[in-house]
Design brief:
Length: 331
């Protein structure tokens, strides 16, 4: 209860004790005569001006019960399934009651998808992190991080805001939405062009792409020594680890190997792809041509300061892998 209420009630009692009528007290304080009378009577009874504790109806669900509801929802991910489980245990609660108690302790968040890691994956990630954890920042700043991205057009939003009581709008979907295949590289000092890929990618087409574009791109980014990075065990195309690819890299560039499989959390370009997707979707393109144009515009407007921060996070990413004993991290 606020201090202002206590002060007001004390003034009412004081005025009454000074001989003022309840009508006069109402004029001076703005409090009705009946309320003034009630507080004066209360003060005479127990000399207390605080609110009395209200008994009210006892809660349907105890604190322990609410915690059990949350644990059940984390496991079942369904209000109705949780309701059935509670019913089998002899507890009958409405869906609204379950929801209200659950939301008091928890909230719904989008699931963060992470690669399924085998023990071999974890061991490789752990070895890689331990090998490079003491690298200086300049080592990572002089690296070109590259990757492919399959961009799905006409992807419907997973969540929308609607006015309470109204239905969610119908979102038209495309049965087989066109995909745009991309390849690019990022570094502390700049980014490459955004390249389109067409058809099935092979080791020969990958090497041809590097031969035609890599040296020219790098000359515009680095002034000194640099290192090439790609996922040498990439499963999306199966061409990075090919013997012909590695032979070309060994001959023409200095490159980081071996990059551990299933490790998007170690590659800052994955975060850049996410930035690109959000920027493109905010433009709400209506056709494949508009998607393609939006991709080029968003890539050209990419915030280099954010890219630098991502690359400077490499030591923290490696430390997170070590702390997780090779498991997934927050990155």
């Amino acid at each position: 209860m606020s201090d202002e209420k206590i002060v007001l009630r004390a003034r009412i009692v004081a005025l009454r004790q000074e001989g003022y009528s309840y009508g006069a007290i109402e004029t001076k304080t703005g409090v009705s005569k009946s309320v003034a009378f009630r507080w004066c009577q209360r003060f005479e009874e127990d000399a207390n001006l605080s609110d009395r504790k209200r008994s009210g109806r006892p809660p349907v669900v105890t604190a322990e019960g609410a915690a059990e509801i949350v644990e059940s929802l984390k496991r079942t991910r369904s209000l109705r399934v949780t309701q059935r489980e509670l019913h089998h245990e002899g507890v009958s609660l409405s869906l609204s009651t379950i929801h209200s108690h659950a939301t008091a302790l928890a909230e719904v968040k989008s699931v963060r998808k992470k690669p399924l890691l085998t023990e071999d994956h974890k061991e490789a990630r752990l070895q890689f992190a331990r090998l490079h954890i003491h690298r200086p920042l300049e080592f990572w700043r002089s690296m070109l991080f590259t990757d492919e991205k399959s961009y799905e057009t006409f992807r419907p939003p997973s969540h929308v805001w609607v006015v309470r009581g109204e239905s969610a709008p119908v979102q038209p979907t495309v049965k087989r939405p066109p995909k745009i295949q991309l390849w690019a590289g990022i570094s502390y000092y700049g980014i490459t062009s955004l390249y389109r890929l067409y058809g099935k990618q092979t080791s020969a087409s990958y090497v041809e792409r590097l031969e035609e574009n890599l040296q020219e791109e790098v000359s515009d980014i680095f002034t000194g020594q640099w290192t090439f990075m790609h996922d040498s065990t990439c499963t999306g195309y199966g061409v990075h680890g090919a013997a012909a690819t590695q032979e070309w890299l060994n001959t023409h560039v200095r490159w980081l190997k071996p990059w551990p499989a299933n490790s998007p959390d170690l590659n800052p370009i994955e975060n850049v792809w996410g930035m690109l997707t959000r920027q493109v979707e905010s433009r709400n393109p209506k056709s494949v041509e508009e998607y393609s144009s939006a991709l080029d515009d968003a890539w050209a407007e990419m915030d280099q300061a954010k890219i630098r921060n991502l690359i400077d996070s490499m030591p923290r990413r490696l430390r997170a892998v070590i702390d997780a004993e090779g498991g997934n991290t927050k990155y």
